[in-house]
Amino acid sequence: MTEPAAPQDGRPRRRSERARVAILDATNELLHENGLDNLSIEAVAARAGVGKQTIYRWWPTRPALVADALLHRDDLEPLLAPDTGDVVKDMTRWAGALADSIGSPRGAATLRMLTAAATEHPEISRRLHERFSGPLQSSALERLKNADEITATPSQRRHAVDAMIGGMVFKVLAHQKLTRAGAAESVRIVLRGLGV
Amino acid sequence: MTEPAAPQDGRPRRRSERARVAILDATNELLHENGLDNLSIEAVAARAGVGKQTIYRWWPTRPALVADALLHRDDLEPLLAPDTGDVVKDMTRWAGALADSIGSPRGAATLRMLTAAATEHPEISRRLHERFSGPLQSSALERLKNADEITATPSQRRHAVDAMIGGMVFKVLAHQKLTRAGAAESVRIVLRGLGV
DNA sequence: CAGCTAACGAGACGCGGCGTCTCGTGAGCT
DNA sequence: AGCTCACGAGACGCCGCGTCTCGTTAGCTG
Fold first, then answer.
1. B42 CA to C16 C1', in Å?
2. pTM as predicted
3. Residue nearest to nucleotide D9 (CA to C1')
């Protein structure tokens, strides 16, 4: 995110920062007010005080705009696992922070809308992974790798991390409660499964 | 599913079974051809050889139709865990069957579209849980509960099951590979975490 | 500073799908 | 045999789509 003036492709001409931010803000507001599939470009343009063409000029598709808008505000922060030497404590803290983030009403709404948008648009899926789940996975994997008491194979570590993240994401998508305590319990189970 | 002639509410009048099935089939075809957000009621009516009013008469919203259609064909079967006495073998078989189901191209597409539809419509979410994830969870929970070698609390069993299901669902939604072998490895880790 | 130029706000355009309505018609109960 | 209500068909006004064409203006270049 936060490319000041250029899209990324071959035509980096001068671009109004004011319009760009107004569009992303308006999109965010409307998404949280009316939901993903009631979002219209016309409404975004009207609220942002912008011509429709300005939106179509810089975002090729509606989902691209949605992804930019939702990832623009840091409702979903790819929290990194600390390394204090105590792998259980570190992973618990990591999972707790994630639970706080995607378990909050706003974070859950953001995650759900991003998931829905990513579902049909591989490009959005890529962006979501690059900005959120990727760093999340990498950070957790790295922390497990650095834990002396864990002798698991890389493949096992990957499945373990996916089970922890997936378990939490699944609860959110299924509209089940996701608490810090629940996240901690999941982490304890999976880490014990890795031999800790 | 498969209520022969009545919707379920207070007005169970005579209803054309031919039209009902034609509509669900047409919806399924169009969903897999064009994706969720390119599905138009007009196109469904045209392909089914049906008046639009017939669709609007029996399904209140587009997502309701989508859910009925996707759950009508049994692309997603809520596979139940067997009980042979060997809990690792049983859970591995259960997870393997699930991986086959939602890991196949068609199953993955169905799961993604249902997830997207459920994201914005709690009603669909409820239906999906009732028809798919609910039985899946219950069956796994029951099997774990019956395993003498597992002394985990109910809460721990729930988190363990969510970690297994969530880990697999997460891989599908994130467009990662989901294999039978990977599912087996996840199961092994989580069960070991439960003390097996 | 002056001039150029492309992005800007505004909005008109045709199009396609929306959800509602109004027709005969015919299937299926009584 | 008669009644009745769901049916297929399609017309209706409406709305948002994505494209286009206007001046206007911000900001680079000389």
1. 10
2. 0.91
3. B51
